[in-house]
Amino acid sequence: MIAELGLTALWLAAALSVLQLVAGALALRDEGGELAKLVRPAAILQGLLAGFAFLMLLYLFAVTDLSVKLVETNSHSAKPMVFKLAGAWGNHEGSMLLWITVMALAGGLIALAERRLPEKTMLATLAAQAFVGLGFYAFLLLSSNPFERLPMPALEGRGLNPLLQDIGLAFHPPTLYFGYVGLSVAFSFAVGALVTRQVNPVFARAMRPWVLGAWIFLTLGITAGSYWAYYELGWGGWWFWDPVENASLMPWLAATALLHSVGVLAARDALRTWTIMLGVVAFSMSMLGTFLVRSGILTSVHAFAVDPERGTFILFLLVLYIGGALLLFGLRAATVAEGERFRVTSREGALVINNVMLSAILGIVLLGTLYPLLTEAFDVRVSVGPPYFNPVGAIFTIPMLLVMCVGPLLRWRGDSLGRIKNSLAIVAAIMLAVLALVVVLGSYGILPVLGLSIAIGLAIASFLPLRGRNLLRVPIATWGMVVAHFGLAVALFGMASETAFSEEKLAAVPVGESAQVGPWTVTLENVEPVAGPNWTAIQGRFAARYDGGDAVILTPQARNFWAPPQETTESTLATRWNGQLYAVIGNQAPDGRWQLRLWWKPFVTFIWYGGILVALGGLLALIGRLKSDLKRRYVKSRLADRAAEVAA
Amino acid sequence: MSALKPKHQRLVLLAIALVAIIGAGLLASYALRNEASYFYTADQIAANPPKPGELIRLGGMVQEGSLSTLEDGVTVAFTVTDMKSATVPVRYTGILPDLFVEGSGVVADGRMDEGGTFIAEQLLAKHDENYVPRELQDMQQHSADETLKTLETSQ
């Protein structure tokens, strides 16, 4: 009964999206007609219905209703509750339902809250949103129905892949999806503005919170995914340049560029067509990412059993929406009036360079990710990894980071470098000093050395915009920029430090003996079998001492899950302020010794602290923008009231 | 630069953008040709051996009964086969990934040494036992057919 309720809600939501599309499109010709009044309620109701359908799926997973196929394939009654719920989106159908739910709720929210845009642009935006949603409803209802019943209820579920039975699953996919789908809203806004040619600061201010929100979620999703892969895969790596990882990085790069260009459009009414273009590109990257992950067309370490047919459907949607939007762009771009002009040495100029560099990096990642597909057409199979991405990406990342130190210090419209030369000299001196220090200390790769130097320079430069200002009066959004830029410096420091200073030890150790890695001494105290709710494991007990200090007890495991049967390696971490000790236990050698793999990774945690700071910066900016929007709205209504009083 | 007219300022930015984008394209295509690592199966290595020390990716099946641990307790040796005739000896120092078993597919990044042994630097672990890397899909199909044939003949 619950499953049928969910399915009905989904069909109704799909029907409402048809209404929203048709009414919105027709009302564009006949403004102020009856049809236009239908569009907003349709969007709101559609959001509620999709949300309801998703709640029904959560309920089915919570009670483990084994008459539903999706629950039977992906869940198990013995699984802890949090993984039962998270299991609802740990599979294809459920994750697509999550996608459409977030999208419909976002559409409902725009319909409910957005009152600044001209009504026509609003109608076109909601129609575009419905059009995109409709494709996903069709996909879900026609080929991936999450509520499908089994002819006979099963006795027990098949369980969830053990690697997914982790708290990471509860956070990583939903945050990434919120980000992907948030970009669909930016896309709809861009299409709406193209239809009515109303590209101006009002439009930018309406679009900005959505871009910011999507970008915050993408940042958190990538940060969480990186940490999850780091401790779950047992390799101690935080980024592999794997296609699935690149699939999440590309929308982030596009969203970062969009975030900065929409800021220019809102503040200075410049970069009009460029912003629209980026709105289209950012969502294309989201869809491309979904396609790469869902179709399994590229070999990935993060791939789960995939279905090429479903990939084809997403590819079809991708071509339809993006092709359509680009066509519209081609037809309309020339008729969007030219924006305000500015000088190269200005805030806008620096932001343009930032955008160009981000686009270049995006292009490089895109080419590297798709290259294996291109060569396969000629029957040559290749894989592209760090030897390509690291140096080629760095050539554009380094100038971008350097401009990041300068840009926020420049004034809008036009400025001279002479005015800020003292600040620049300080930052340059710090960078050179760090560079010299690291080069003297040891021989490390060129990229980590440059990374450390730029990270410290940028960390200082990110606070310079606050110099000489009353800190209490600095707008929240400016604090957001400072925190986000500082966060990037922190993350960069973590990456460079991990790459330069990591130490690794692989040893076969009998019980009672020790191994050394960096400043740590790790003693294997014993190895014993342990059992969990749905697994048994061999657990090592390590006593780890940092520099001869107190022992930290670590218990890495080699787990055997029985539903479904699969082995996993559970690494353990000892975290200090200055880094992490990473320990994994392997097989027993024939002579009774145990394989240990240990890493000492100085400041590796800064990578993820930095990611969280970047997201926090985004959140501050969002709060700042919403606050000033509310203030503007309040002032406007007060003025209207006064005008009414005067008239009376 | 401040002497330039606004229109020219725009051109300067456009020039920077064009140079960066074209540069990125050229650089990427040049680097891809040099840095992409080629995928080999055991028979391709036999027919057309890659240069020792060149980063390549090897794919195939782990031969049944070939897995052994060496003296040091952390290095494993096994043989990768194309399920027909060719085999490549492989060494890997590290902890084997969770889904690594004899008779199942493996994809490894590494280099050939002078003696014709493949020194694996990374074994590609899988998240899911149902997932078959794309490079191995044909081979897996082939081996499934073989298994069926053996079953039929033994009946």
From TrEMBL, chain A:
InterPro entries from the UniProt entry: CcmF_C, Cyt_c_assembly, Cyt_c_biogenesis, Cyt_c_biogenesis_CcmF
Topology in the lipid bilayer: Multi-pass membrane protein
Main location: membrane
Ranges of residues in domain Cytochrome c assembly protein: 89-295
Molecular functions (GO terms): heme binding; heme transmembrane transporter activity; lyase activity
Annotated keywords: Cell inner membrane, Cell membrane, Cytochrome c-type biogenesis, Lyase, Membrane, Transmembrane, Transmembrane helix
Protein localization: Cell inner membrane
Transmembrane intervals: 6-26, 38-62, 96-113, 122-142, 177-197, 209-229, 249-267, 274-293, 313-331, 352-371, 391-410, 422-440, 446-464, 476-496, 606-626
Any Pfam family matching the protein: Cytochrom_C_asm
Residue stretches making up the Cytochrome c-type biogenesis protein CcmF C-terminal domain: 315-625
Origin: domain of life: Bacteria
Any one GO BP annotation for this protein: cytochrome complex assembly
Family: Belongs to the CcmF/CycK/Ccl1/NrfE/CcsA family.
NCBIfam families (alphabetical): nrfE
Function in brief: Required for the biogenesis of c-type cytochromes. Possible subunit of a heme lyase.
Protein name: Heme lyase CcmF/NrfE family subunit
Source species of the chain: Pontixanthobacter aquaemixtae
Automatic annotation (TrEMBL), chain B:
Record-level GO cellular component terms: plasma membrane
Residue numbers binding heme: H127, Y131
A biological process from GO: protein-heme linkage
InterPro entries in the record: CcmE, CcmE-like_sf, NA-bd_OB-fold
SUPFAM superfamilies: Heme chaperone CcmE
Membrane topology: Single-pass type II membrane protein
Cytoplasmic side: 1-10
Extracellular side: 32-155
Positions of transmembrane segments: 12-32
Record keywords, A-Z: Cell membrane, Cytochrome c-type biogenesis, Heme, Iron, Membrane, Metal-binding, Signal-anchor, Transmembrane, Transmembrane helix
Compartment list: Cell membrane; Membrane
Keyword match Heme: yes
Keyword Kinase: no
Main location: membrane
GO molecular function: heme binding; metal ion binding
Protein task: Heme chaperone required for the biogenesis of c-type cytochromes. Transiently binds heme delivered by CcmC and transfers the heme to apo-cytochromes in a process facilitated by CcmF and CcmH.
Family annotation (HAMAP family): CcmE (MF_01959)
Similarity section: Belongs to the CcmE/CycJ family.
Protein name (database record): Cytochrome c-type biogenesis protein CcmE
Source species: Pontixanthobacter aquaemixtae
